[in-house]
Specification:
This protein is of the alpha/beta class.
Amino acid sequence: MIGISVKNIHLSEGEMISLKEFLVHLINEYVSKSDKRAVINVSTMERKYCSVEEHLLRRSSIKARDIVDFLPSRLVVIPHSGRLGILAFSDYRVHSVDMVLEFVRNLKEKPDLIVYAGDDVRRFAPPPREFFRPKYHGSCEYPNEVFVGSFCFELPSGRTVTANEYVVRLSRDFAESLSEQDIIDRIMRTRKFYGLLRDIERRFYNRVGDKNIVDEFLAEVEDIVDKFGFRLVYKKRSRGDDFDICVLDDDTKTCVAQVGVWVRDVGGGSFVSLSVFLYDSYSILFKDLEKSDEIRLIKLSSSPRKYVYYLVLLDRPEVNIFEELAKYTTYGVLAVIGNDDRLVARMYIRGDKVYELQSTLVKIGDLLFVGLEGATSDIGHVVYPESFVRLRLEFIKRFLEPNDKLIIVSHSPPRGLLDRAMRFGDRAIGSIALREFIDENDNVILVVCGHVHREGGKYIIHNNGATIVNVSSHDSFIDKANIALITIDQGKVQNVEFFKLPSPLEIVFGKGSLRDAFIFLVEKVGFRPRQADVIIEGYLKFGMEFIRNLDRLANIKYKYGFTWDHIVDFYSLGVRSDNDLNEEIIKKLLDQPKCKFKQNLRRALTKFLRIRKAEKEIFLLEPLPFSSDAKIIVFDLEYLPDRPVLYGFYDLSNGEIKQFWFDGTEKLREYLKSKSDYIFVHWGGSDKKYIKEVDPKINTVNLLYFVQTALVAPTDSSTLESIHDVLCGHKNDNWWEKHFYYADGPLKSMLCNKVLRNPEDAESKSILAEMNKADIIALGRVIKRLFELKVKNLCNNLG
């Protein structure tokens, strides 16, 4: 028996006051040093700055008054001496949890400890039913059929947080005669209904037409509602002609779906703008069902009146995997929740020898383990200001003996150490406070972290001797999972060894059914059918080795923009990773008489040359497709997915700028007709499609495509802003900052919506027009600069 002791951590009133005063000091310190974020006032297009620290203080899951909730409430002490073996992993979001369990079972030498550094914690344990608190709606005749927020969890301060669990509510009379499978079948049938309703929503969202468009929309909704045996109820809103639709099921005595409808007059009352929005808990459930078709039900207690409740589990185990893993260790499992979990996920870290490291400190011998849940970057549900992290780390120092060493299990890496992320832009997203703490304290020997998938499967030794190990796995079905075995002896990290577990795609192919593999590639990985066929052809030609290398091959594809056909061809030429790829191999494919997707290959070669060759030198691989003395008009459109809103034109020969709104197409048609001898140049997108709808005869050139296939410059981005800055230099004046650099897609879409809903909105029209003007002027500057560049033919046979 191991003599484990547990000590509760109690804070006196004086200590609480002292800590709160210290937190105020830390907040001021980190506000002064934290990154600044730009906030745009849409009405005035003024840019204001807000400290990231201040922003996170406003949205943090735990407020400063709840100081006890982010400090540990107990200390677990476990006797130990000698070597300690730790198995660590994190961000285990798509890979099989059973695979980890099998990996641990098969280890000849079992670990002393298993550490999980957060995210998707709920995949490792079923929900504890004792926390279930059903929401009864006695006053509502037809309550929602599916709802969330059915579990409550009490934090140390006494404050409760709510879990996001799906619960199905059915009338008692209806449910009593059904089996569990009958109810699952009903959910899947409702899913089909939702799919049809969603199609109608997409077709009518932001539609403009005569007033019959409302009747047309309602006729389509009523048709599918009748087919599924439901009933419609209309609820008038207080404003204008707006209304809600409730889809009721008289069998289950519940509301299956709700649709909001907004109607606005356009063009003096002769036309209306229709906005449709489908909102309901079922829609959230079905979105999660796209990731996993595995669905199970747990029948819960009935309400005192007329309803029966069923807990819906998606991709969830029937047993506590954390507890199962702990059985193969000496001391158990330590875990924290991640930024994409919610606070309630702490309650899933439970069981015999399972320790939740935010509320519990664990000391094994002279090694003190401390957890840092969530992240300090502004992404996710559990995010903390840097000041909270620093307070927690400083507080924990009081539990260290003179010879103790500190091991930090943090979901987020330290700032600047294995924290370079790509998903929301290339940036460092690690914790500043954690980095400062390990820089200042040489008794920190190990940081186990995750969060940044791009850096998963790597470790570094920091200059103060601390080993930083990022054990995250990428949430891709074609990427392998990362697991690290870390050995600690004599107060130091002696060894870090990484293992790769098979990707979900490898497992599917390993079962031998090509049909299942094809379905998996299309439905789970998101490949088009032809792309899935190419992968299967690669498998048939090269065997499982091709599938095992697919994660590294995918990095090549997405980095440079090759097609999967090219990747298979590269594989036959010996390419297994980015290091194997070179200019000669790419040219070899281009030289083949039956080269597939040659234009894509040219574009990828250009990007390859940019990354590999371009430093400060800028040049073209081929001349522009028009001469410098040609008559050129640059054009750019502001549009929504289904229609253009604003057309902008810039005549490079005389500097004239013309703009036409969506209701001025006759004047636009006359303008285009008068410029029939011009070349119209645009920057990708749907601009060509919409301008051709007005005048099919005009001559257009996609300059974005030319830049992607011919420009070699020190940038791996093809946005107009990036190309403009690398060729023409950054424009620092206020007008360019407001209307070019901060005019992103969501902001333009919002303005387009406002203009369509209210064509008399002069303020929105003015802002959108200035943004459009900035784009066409920037494009004109790019063209003039491209004419000045040298043309170097680095490779032959590019045509």
